């Protein structure tokens, strides 16, 4: 097992990518502290995998401290931090509200920083460790009406690079995963909105959203969990400062030439 005896904290671990990652880590031998805002889902996941649930707001410094304390008190150490908690928020720069901007930045950027900051003393104490920040392709390219989300996910990559430079000399690796569309509750919400606009089903909306993605499909949460597992484990021991793009090839496509794409429909 690739994480035998390791201890990990996974934020946003009640559903979607976080829950899949917590389960995958446990299957690979890790002890997992699962955090999130909704107590029911994170306790369900933690009970399933024999982990510890720490409910709370990711943007609360006290919550980050509590999660790290739980790892230390229950399992005696900390080896891996997966900062996955986040949310989506709409609005362009001209119409985003102060509340939406602040809430998105708190969840998507401040929360990961607080969790990492709280966990660093234990990682440095061991002289090793892996931090995985779950960003998004929105950290590399921009969608419409998403100024807060795009900015927060882009800034998360800056946080990653800063951690690499400051803590790499002490044995702590930091990398980022940038998923495209993923079948999760958050992705489903976006697809349901698109489905109403296009007069189709949720599944039809996913097909529309990925019609020009080279692999022609969204990712599963388990596929993104596999990316997190690779970056967390010893197989990536020389990898730090990497942005692992897991988008089915979407950001490799030149949008200006999509009109010339061959019709591959049966």
Describe this protein's structure.
The chain has 266 residues and is of the alpha/beta class. The chain contains eight helices and nine strands. Strands 3-2-1-4-5-6-9 form a seven-stranded parallel sheet, sandwiched between helices. A two-stranded parallel sheet has the order 7-8. Strand 2 (31-36), helix 2 and strand 3 (52-55) form a beta-alpha-beta unit. The radius of gyration is 18 Å and the shape is globular. The termini are far apart. The model has no long low-confidence stretch (mean pLDDT 96).
Please supply descriptive tags for the structure shown above:
266 residues, alpha/beta, seven-stranded parallel beta sheet, two-stranded parallel sheet
The gist of it:
The chain is 46% helix and 15% strand. With 266 residues, the chain is of the alpha/beta class. The strands form 2 sheets. The protein has a 7-stranded parallel β-sheet with strand order 3-2-1-4-5-6-9, sandwiched between helices. A two-stranded parallel sheet has the order 7-8.
Helix content: 40-55%
Note the beta-strand portion. 15-25%
Order of helices and strands: EHEHEHEHEHEEHHEHE
Separation, N- and C-terminal Cα atoms: 42 Å
Helix segment count?
Answer: 8
Note the overall shape. globular
How is the main sheet built? 7 strands, parallel
**Would you identify the regions where 5 or more consecutive residues have pLDDT less than 50?**
none
Structural class assignment: alpha/beta
- State the strand order across the main sheet: 3-2-1-4-5-6-9
Counted beta strands: 9
